[in-house]
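Cont'd.
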Amino acid sequence: MSATISAPGQSRQRILDRIRLATQSVAQSAPQLAETCEALPRAYIRHGALPSQARIALMIERLREYDAEVVESTPAALPSVIAAQLAASGKHIFVVPPALPAEWLAKGFDWKIDNNLTTAEIELAEGVVTAASCGVADSGTIVLHHSPAESRRVLTLLPDWHLCILRASQVVETLPEYFDRCQQQPTLATTISGPSATADIEMTRIKGVHGPRFLHVILVRDEI
Amino acid sequence: MTHAAANHPVLDPVFAPPFPQAALPVLRNPQLRKNVAHAIDVIQAKRAKLVAEKTDWKELRSAASAIRAHALENLGAYLEEFETRCTAAGGTVHWAADAAEARQIILDILRQENASDVIKIKTMTSAEIQLNPFLQAAGVNVFETDLAEIILQLGEEEPSHIVVPALHINRSQVREIFARRMGLKDLSDDPHALTAAARAYLRQKFLTIPTAISGANFLIAETGGVAVVESEGNGRMCLTLPRTMITLAGIEKVLPRFKDLEVMLQVLARSATGERMNPYNSLWTGVSHGDGPQRFHVVLLDNGRSSILSKPTERQTLKCIRCAACMNSCPVYRQTGGHAYGSVYPGPIGAILTPQLMQMHHAQSLPFASSLCGACYEVCPVKINIPEVLLELRSQVVNQERKDLARFFDPMYLGLRIANLLFAKAWLFHSAQFLGRIGIGFFTRKDGWIHALPSVGGKWTQTRDLRGFPKQTFHEWWASRGPAPGPALSKEAR
């Protein structure tokens, strides 16, 4: 154990002192600060103008642009649509978060329910099925807050195939609308915009580096 | 030193040669210039398309700029708020005044963890503090996990761009590096195959190495959360699988509120990679029971930033969100690539950030590595007026040099002092013009241009031609032009 760092707290004070000195002229109290922050110019588009159908159509279009597979379903048909997607994937071993509705777990597949599965067990799975928190149509983004139906972060990461169930009522048009929907700030959030990708070699987009190579989305038309 | 520099770029501003000298190896390497130009052409085109489709781009940019400026004006308060929230959520916040302290804090954490290996998410801040060589020397094996960073690490190359650091290396060069270092003799140069090789190479490391280091794109004061923006999923791997996570972040990275991400994420993805949104964004707050690392450290790094903060014109440098749009749009970067800047931060932002991080003791040539065309300012999503800062830094460099006695007889300064005298009196100016026209006539070719000047004048003509003196000065022409055309012209104009 080396102990070459100057006493802890010493640098903290030094840095904060230097910052205070540098910004002295505009130092503000907490309520003032909140007020100034609130008054910052935010003239960008908060709310989208698209009608419901067009918003969902945009979400689907943008997801497909990222090479995600999208199918639509009515709420009633969802279990059978899920089963069809699973069957078409050619995979058998799936991990799922503990709070997924039981009717989503179609018969004939090997379901591993995540009650503290080890990383090795998750790594053995070929696919994962989860719910989601929100969809942002403008950028084709899916937001996970990692609730018990959306799984721990690792579940949507190791398996090569991710099936995400997104309800139309969860889809907003713009990113600011998502932030408006957050009643409280999530402690964990992952946004997914298409499958894992890289363009590090000659700017050629390659699908699937470390995260799932295949992203499938079922859009449940729960809006009238 | 110079010999080594000619063959291998030096990205330590303390030792790097001046920009004009460091740029030569690239200017003489057509392959390298082709690689750089191709990459930035692709990103530029994608960016332009996606910015154009955003009808509220102007407003987003204004908001992003205002949020960053506001965060900096109140940096002390927001950092303390971040520290309080992050600590309450189970994180440990460390403060590092300089690079050496940050390195030592990180090493001490690794020692406490008995970590012999560490996996890393791409972080330019760690390159700034030269963390990898330090940890390697201390016996810790460092594994970069971003594809570009693996290419650089295995190829013993240096980053030349802050978003796509290996853009100067083409597929056949990557193939050669991977084949050699991963022992894959039959590897093809298809980017799919190369990417698959990287995936296989790293998979076991992700699953077994329990300690990781990341940077941060944003620190959220309101929640104590940290956001990392990425494409490949290597970031998510490092943020999810290990037991311990160490995040190194510059003190300027703080945003006031969670909601501010609604602006930042929109402008960052479009500016950086020309995507509506990058594949993955991760946000975490301290430690989450049963999900991800159970020990979490944040190292807040000053390393010269508080000094930049204290200067009114230069402060805006710290608004930077590291999107690299400025280097992609820069006509100088396009020709020289990143290595010429002698810093891990190249391009226009590097030209202003690097000398300031060096407290103007090194990298003084960088503020001059620009044509001041302003393209960088135009594309900057947080409206950093880079030309303005460049000019400010140029004047500081000139003031440093002027105070240097050895420079008193430097031909340029001598010339400028003489010019100062000549311009002060009209008769002196006219006489100088008269004599100058005779003198310069000897160097003016038939085409009316001066292609080469002797002595100190050669510094100008080395890189550009100079127009010869006209037959008449403006004053002479004005005096000789005869009576003004008068009302006839104004009637015509109507």
